[in-house]
Design goal:
This protein is 47% helix and 9% strand. The longest helix is centred in the middle third of the chain and has 18 residues. The two termini are 30 Å apart.
Length: 328
């Protein structure tokens, strides 16, 4: 799951998937770099690509300054994971929640099939697709080749990861018959309805609508992909996900909050947290969403951790949970 965890930092909300018109990609001679020449040698030897093909692709690749800027310098919270206020404004607003209900109704047959086949709750599939692409409305318009070439061969805090994804991009394009120069996605190279980087598509991509092709931009294929992901990561159908709480004051600082480690429920209760509904697990993830004026504190169950294995963010998981609640 290491590559999934790394992916989590690169998958974004729809409102981050806008064009980089301020600093458009510019011509750049990738072939002049020794590292690129070594990459070409590896692709020819390891994966049996034609040298002329890889060379031609890299000749056409441009330097995406906007993409590089996001992964250089000091990491700032909110640059690759949306803060809670933005989630509420863009994916938990009344219009989006109405779209979620309509999506569930329109694709109910496929959602039901996936729910039964993979033993997952359909509302959370809806939540994933809503957060990742607003039900297919925003899948990104960055050139994936430019983005991944830039991040693979220029110093940044996730260069090793992106270099691997650049390799997988060629494998994905060959397997799917895609024109590698024309693929579009997020600034981190994530594509389609559920925003997958190439390695994740190769692992989870599927033809769920039976049309004979695995299509990351197809909504029904996306339903199958997310259901499969949830199942593979240990989702328990019908089990608790998150429970709201109350506490004294506006900000909570008594215990460390995290979606990555649990605390004994007894400890949480002793430190001023009162669940507003029964919580039926002995340990919980103590979750915090910071609003402008106050904190929301939730108790997360084992299922909540599955949500954050796709994107390493409490706010991300909570947004999916609240969309699921809204479409019940």
């Amino acid at each position: 799951m290491r590559h999934i965890k790394l992916l989590l930092l690169s998958i974004l909300l729809p409102f981050f998937l806008t064009a980089n018109d301020d600093r458009p990609p510019i011509a750049y001679d990738f072939l002049a770099k020794k590292e690129v020449k070594n990459f070409i040698d590896m692709m020819v030897k390891k994966h049996h690509f034609k040298r002329s093909y890889i060379t031609d692709v890299l000749k056409s690749a441009k330097l995406d300054r906007d993409t590089l800027n996001r992964y250089t310098g000091k990491y700032k919270v909110g640059t690759t994971n949306g803060p809670w206020e933005r989630y509420k404004a863009h994916v938990l607003d009344p219009i989006t929640l109405d779209k979620a209900r309509k999506f569930k109704k329109r694709y109910y047959k496929t959602l039901l099939k996936a729910s039964k086949q993979y033993k997952v709750d359909m509302g959370y599939i809806v939540g994933f697709i809503g957060v990742e692409s607003k039900f297919g409305e925003y899948t990104g318009d960055y050139n994936v080749l430019d983005a991944l070439a830039t991040l693979a061969f220029h110093k940044n805090r996730m260069k090793k990861f992106f270099k691997s994804e650049f390799e997988h991009l060629f494998l994905m394009a060959r397997k799917q018959g895609y024109d590698i120069k024309k693929l579009e996605g997020s600034f981190a190279g994530a594509m389609g309805i559920v925003q997958q980087v190439p390695s994740v598509f190769l692992k989870y991509g599927m033809d769920y609508n039976g049309d004979g092709k695995k299509d990351p931009w197809d909504l029904e294929d996306g339903i199958g992909i997310i259901a499969k992901f949830m199942h593979k990561n240990g989702w328990k159908k019908g089990a608790q996900v998150a429970v709201p709480t109350k506490f004294k004051g506006k900000r909570y600082t008594k215990l460390k909050t995290s979606h990555r480690r649990t605390l004994p429920l007894k400890t949480i209760l002793k430190h001023g947290i009162k669940p507003l509904k029964p919580f039926n697990e002995s340990k919980a993830y103590l979750l915090k969403n910071r609003n402008l004026t106050h904190d929301d504190i939730w108790l997360g169950a084992k299922n909540f951790r599955v949500l954050t294995r796709y994107n390493n963010s409490t706010s991300y998981g909570m947004a999916i949970h609240l969309i699921s609640e809204a479409v019940k």
